[in-house]
């Protein structure tokens, strides 16, 4: 069992946490311009790294705050724990600068460059039905 050091609460048993997937996956700048394939790649395609891997974690039974963790997927060794919106440290725990289009605001949950490319996409001429900006009948807001 892992002992995870929450940045807000200190060391706790891993049963208090929930895994949130790969860290540093930026939300596309213009999601409405993505093709179905590009949107699916953003939602479902993730790295499957052997070795150091940046992950998002939620301290669900404690402070309920999200944070990032750099963990070795082979040895389960936790190499670094750092706040959301900060750059990923390298394997030695030193911060590295990543470039990308994601927000670095304190409330941001994404940074990095792992999103699918949105260059060269177009939504014109693909549908005969006009696009609607209102929710369908019966949908909740």
Summed up:
The chain is mainly beta and 141 residues long. It is built from one helix and six strands; from the N terminus they run βββαβββ.
What does this structure look like?
- The chain has 141 residues and is mostly beta strands.
- The chain is built from 1 helix and 6 strands.
- The protein has one helix at residues 36-44; strands at residues 3-6, 10-13, 18-22, 52-58, 66-72, 78-82.
- Strands 3-4-5-6 form a 4-stranded antiparallel sheet, with no helix packed on it.
- A hairpin with a 5-residue loop joins β5 (66-72) and β6 (78-82).
- The longest helix is centred in the first third of the chain and has 9 residues, at 36-44.
- It is globular, with a radius of gyration of 18 Å.
- The termini are far apart.
Break the fold down into its secondary structure elements and pairings.
Elements (H helix, E strand, L loop, with lengths): L2 E4 L3 E4 L4 E5 L13 H9 L7 E7 L7 E7 L5 E5 L59
- In what range is the share of β-strand residues? 15-25%
Distinct helical segment count: 1
Separation, N- and C-terminal Cα atoms: 41 Å
Number of strand segments: 6
Strand order in the largest sheet? 3-4-5-6
The class by helix and strand makeup works out as mainly beta
Key features of this structure:
6% helix, 6 strands, globular, two-stranded antiparallel sheet, 141 residues, mainly beta, single chain
């Amino acid at each position: 069992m892992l002992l995870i050091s929450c940045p807000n609460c200190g060391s706790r048993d891993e049963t208090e946490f929930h895994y949130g997937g790969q860290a540093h996956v930026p939300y596309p700048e213009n999601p409405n311009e993505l093709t179905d394939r590009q949107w699916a790649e953003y939602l479902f395609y993730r790295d499957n790294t052997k070795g150091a891997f940046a992950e998002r974690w939620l301290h669900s039974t404690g402070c309920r705050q999200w944070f990032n963790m750099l963990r070795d997927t082979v040895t389960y060794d936790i190499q670094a724990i750092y706040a959301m919106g900060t750059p990923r440290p390298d394997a030695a725990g030193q911060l590295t600068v990543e470039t990308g289009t994601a927000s670095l605001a304190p409330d941001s949950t994404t940074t990095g460059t792992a999103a699918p490319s949105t260059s060269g996409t177009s939504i014109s001429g693909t549908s005969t039905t006009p696009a609607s900006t209102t929710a369908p009948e019966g949908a909740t807001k």
